[in-house]
Specification:
- The chain has eight helices and twelve strands.
- It is α/β, with parallel strands linked by helices.
- The protein folds into two domains: 118 residues, Response regulator (Rossmann fold, 3-Layer(aba) Sandwich); 93 residues, Arc Repressor Mutant, subunit A.
- Strands 2-1-3-4-5 form a five-stranded parallel beta sheet, with helices on both faces. It has a four-stranded antiparallel beta sheet with strand order 6-7-8-9, covered by helices on one side.
- A hairpin with a 4-residue loop joins β7 and β8.
- α7 packs across α8.
- It is elongated.
Length: 221
């Protein structure tokens, strides 16, 4: 999944981004409201973690513009403000959840995971596909109940294919889910990760079919 972290505290923003990258997500991190607004206009995301107190354009205005564009991407607001009025305003503008600073990173990760699952159609935390299961919260794949070793990008690739199982997933979409805009990568990188994942899953009867000119299809078991 691809996330946007909007936080003007550079150390905190990088800490949040690093935690989600370690779980296999592609993360873009910006420090101003204007940069956030630009990113949201040009790139689709699965979740936005948005601080309210930002330079040049506060998080509430970023959220207001986002919802005016009819975007339904889940937004988790961060704030150092503890006033009820600010929280109510954010929720009325279309925020999906709120977290006050200081917060535990584990709580942020849990809330973010719930919003991502809700945003992709209410998928359960554990997705089953034949002999394969993926625990999206624990970031763990199993075949016949036994864990299989998948690096973080292969886990993300598998998650995207499972969520859209039975449908062709374009290479460009996979590229956007696997890499942030600070990482240089092309569709050839997607092909490499698909090749690696395919070799690990085929013994379990899980097939990723290449649809020439279109993308990849996780076949129904």
């Amino acid at each position: 999944m691809r996330l946007l972290v909007v936080e003007d505290n550079q150390a905190l923003g990088h800490s949040i981004a690093s935690a989600f990258r370690a779980k296999g997500h592609a993360v873009d991190c910006v420090e101003s409201g204007e940069d956030a607004d630009t990113s949201l206009r040009t790139q689709p995301y699965d979740l936005v973690i948005l601080d309210i107190g930002l330079p040049d354009l506060d998080g509430l205005e970023v959220l207001r513009r986002l919802r005016r564009r009819k975007s339904r991407v889940p937004v988790l607001m961060l704030t150092a403000r503890d006033g009820l009025e600010d929280r109510v305003q954010g929720l009325n503008l279309g925020a999906d959840d709120y977290l006050c600073k200081p917060f535990a990173l584990a709580e942020l990760e849990a809330r973010a995971g719930a919003l991502i699952r809700r945003g992709v159609g209410g998928e359960a935390a554990i997705i089953a596909h034949g002999r394969l299961t993926l625990d999206t919260a624990a970031r763990l794949a199993r075949v016949d109940g036994e864990p299989i070793d998948l690096p973080r990008r292969e886990l993300t690739l598998l998650e995207v294919l499972l969520i859209q199982r039975g449908q062709v997933v374009a290479k460009q979409l996979l590229l956007e889910k696997l890499f942030g805009f600070e990482e240089e990568a092309g569709v050839n990188a997607v092909e490499i990760y698909v090749h690696r994942l395919r070799k690990k899953l085929e013994p379990a009867g899980v097939r990723i079919r290449t649809v020439r000119g279109l993308g990849y299809l996780l076949e129904n078991p």
